[in-house]
Automatic annotation (TrEMBL):
Pathway(s) it belongs to: Cofactor biosynthesis; pyridoxine 5'-phosphate biosynthesis; pyridoxine 5'-phosphate from D-erythrose 4-phosphate: step 2/5
UniProt-listed Enzyme Commission number(s): 1.1.1.290
Protein name: Erythronate-4-phosphate dehydrogenase
Species classification: Bacteria, Pseudomonadati, Pseudomonadota, Gammaproteobacteria, Pseudomonadales
Alphabetical keyword list: Cytoplasm, NAD, Oxidoreductase, Pyridoxine biosynthesis
Entry keyword annotation includes Iron: no
Domain Erythronate-4-phosphate dehydrogenase dimerisation: 294-372
Task performed by this protein: Catalyzes the oxidation of erythronate-4-phosphate to 3-hydroxy-2-oxo-4-phosphonooxybutanoate.
Occurrences of domain D-isomer specific 2-hydroxyacid dehydrogenase NAD-binding (ranges): 109-255
Organism in which the protein naturally occurs: Pseudomonas abyssi
Active site, renumbered: 207, 236, 253
GO MF annotation: an example: 4-phosphoerythronate dehydrogenase activity
Assembly, per entry: Homodimer.
Substrates-to-products reaction catalysed: 4-phospho-D-erythronate + NAD(+) = (R)-3-hydroxy-2-oxo-4-phosphooxybutanoate + NADH + H(+)
Length: 379
């Protein structure tokens, strides 16, 4: 078989070469002409896939090595009889660690302890659910908003407008949807943004258009009290430099960019393709992934528990590094296209592991061990 794939999918050869011939392409450049003799298409979030792209091609399987599916025309592909697979939860852990790093950074800058802030989580699925669990285990109070789950009779959810007025931090983890009663396009519009609590922290690592970026820029011009962290942008890969300058933290859609998360995404799509072909899927990440080894951190006996936790989280992932690289690449481009620089930052993203891959050695007491375990570290 012939597989056309985004060149930024890691371990492509290792997983897919046994199934057929692979053609690698930059995701944004994949066109119908590339697919004229392809049987399967493997993409990431930057390739829009709809029936037009696949028209009169033999492609019968589309796999996206991502959680989000808003770049796929799901109803259109289903109507065309195409099998579609995504990678639910693959990089959810990375996004949780991005949010934790934002909390630590905003805490340090404002002098407000992140553990005493009430956090509103909008969208409580793979990412929001893990974030809620982690924060609760760390002793942080959370309010949860998920109308689709609430409408299915699940309890424990509050309306978005309550989160806006009662939470010190709002973190968005919804899919981007354009229709239906719970559509998320411009979920945070001008009317809602102005109701954010004084001094609120707003974090968006879902999809850019979930927040009306034009309205956000206007609100930030009036409200210096707000701290905003954006990982995703409404016109991505085009970035509004003025909005970036008004944000406390800005990054190029890398919240979930841990090596572990990307590899899980590839493995999930390998299994889905094998299932659709009706063949066994003998390969696993464990057998194939280059053994990066487990990183180790070592702390002195008398290190205070919260300091040790924060230091460990920073070692695993520090959003300030991504923010600095992003500003250095984007801000000199005022008035020009940021697309190339945006994609280059993502393509050349540094190696990043997740907390469960890092062993923290310490001789602290129970409180230290409990905090580290709550954050997901191994001992
Ligand atoms: N920045 C990044 O690197 C990454 C971004 N993402 C984005 O995060 C999104 C969420 O990921 P998951 O949690 O894995 O998805 P998920 O599908 O597991 O959960 C999404 C949750 O949002 C809820 N929801 C839908 N509409 C809502 C609304 N109007 N208000 C509140 N809740 C609503 C759903 O009921 C569901 O529980 C993805 O769709 C993707 O766009 C995901 C991974 C990495
Ligand atoms: O999984 C998702 O959903 C994401 O947003 C991915 O982290 C996006 O990564 P790329 O597919 O754009 O490399």
């Amino acid at each position: 078989m012939h597989i056309v794939a985004d060149e930024n999918i890691p371990l492509l050869d290792a997983f897919f070469a046994p199934l057929g011939r692979i053609t690698r392409l930059p995701g944004r450049q994949i066109s119908r002409e590339h697919l004229l003799d392809a049987d399967a298409l493997l993409v990431r979030s930057v390739t829009r896939v709809d029936p037009q792209l696949l028209a009169d091609t033999p492609v019968r399987f589309v796999g996206t090595c991502t959680i989000g599916t808003d770049h796929l025309d799901l109803p259109g592909l289903a109507a065309a009889g195409i099998t579609v697979a995504s990678a639910p939860g693959c990089n959810a852990r990375g996004v949780v660690e991005y949010v934790l790093s934002c909390l630590l950074t905003l805490s340090e800058r404002t002098g407000l302890d992140w553990r005493t802030r009430r956090v509103g989580i909008v969208g409580v699925g793979e990412v929001g659910g893990r974030l809620a669990q982690t924060l609760a285990a760390l002793g942080v109070e959370c309010l949860l908003c998920d109308p689709p789950r609430a409408n299915r009779g699940e309890s424990g959810f509050a309306p978005l407008d309550q989160l806006l007025t009662e939470c010190d931090v709002l973190s968005c983890h919804v899919p981007l949807t354009h229709s239906g009663p719970d559509a998320t396009w411009h979920l945070l519009d001008a009317g809602r943004l102005v109701t954010l609590r004084p001094g609120a922290w707003l974090i968006n690592s879902s999809r850019g258009p979930v927040i009306d970026n034009h309205a956000l820029k206007a609100v930030l011009a009036e409200r210096a009290d707000l701290q905003v962290a954006l990982d995703v942008w409404e016109q991505e890969p085009q970035v509004d430099g003025e909005l970036l300058q008004r944000c406390a933290l800005g990054t190029p859609h890398i919240a979930g960019y841990s090596l572990d998360g990307k590899l899980r995404g590839t493995e999930q799509i390998y299994r889905a393709l094998c299932a659709s072909l009706g063949v066994p899927a003998p390969l696993t990440l464990q057998s194939l992934a280059p053994d990066a080894g487990r990183a180790q951190l070592q702390f002195a006996a008398d290190t205070p528990a919260q300091w040790l936790l924060e230091r460990s989280l920073r070692q695993v992932y520090d959003v300030r590094d991504d923010d600095a690289r992003f500003r250095a690449a984007m801000l000199p481009l005022a008035g020009q296209s940021t697309a190339q620089a945006f994609d280059a930052l993502r393509k050349g993203y540094p190696l990043r592991r997740e907390c469960p891959e890092v062993e923290v050695r310490h001789s602290g007491q129970e409180e230290t061990a409990a905090l580290l375990a709550a954050a997901g570290f191994k001992r």
